[in-house]
Amino acid sequence: MALGYVRPARPEDAGEIARIQLATWRVAYRRILPRHVLDNLDEAWLTRRWAAAVQEPPSGAHRVLVAVEQAEQSYLVGFAASGPADAEALAPNEPAEALGDDVVAVTDLLVEPRWGRRGHGSRLLAASVDLWREDGFGRAVAWAFDGDAATRKFLASAGWEPDGAGRALDVDDMLVPQLRLHVTLPAAGEPAAPAQAAPAD
């Protein structure tokens, strides 16, 4: 019987995190991002990036978690990365103070497609929420591609809602729309509650 769990990433996980990221993007985003962009992503560069994120995080509140499926042997099957909301979490022309000091931003939350529907995404999110509460965060935000229905549905099932912010990423001269989702973090033992969206200007 398979057993799934979540733990903090270790430096030696960097290569597998990069591989999972590439494999997942090339499946999940094949209709969203240009094919040649996905084909030309550099796994070695991603590995170095993740090694730095694990070994030299900007703060103690910057975290990388991995999901593990353990059967006859253990497999890394997904990961989540998050940290205090910074400029990358802001919408275009949004003031730096718009999100506040108690907001955490999810930068990555991926489960390799062949390991999907086995609870790994939910475990990663639940473990992240526990750590965010420990760090004193009251709200979380995440950007999702407008065309990424799976991620949007998953976050919505956990109480996340669009907060009205949007942006378009310039990917090799192709504008790819994203929307920002948010959620108010629950107290210990309580389910996540949708955050109240700010009124549109």
TrEMBL record:
Superkingdom: Bacteria
Acyltransferase found in the keyword field: yes
Entry keyword annotation includes Acyltransferase: yes
Signal peptide: none
One term of GO molecular function: acyltransferase activity, transferring groups other than amino-acyl groups
Limits of the N-acetyltransferase domain: 4-186
Keyword terms: Acyltransferase, Transferase
Record's protein name: GNAT family N-acetyltransferase
Natural source organism: Micromonospora costi
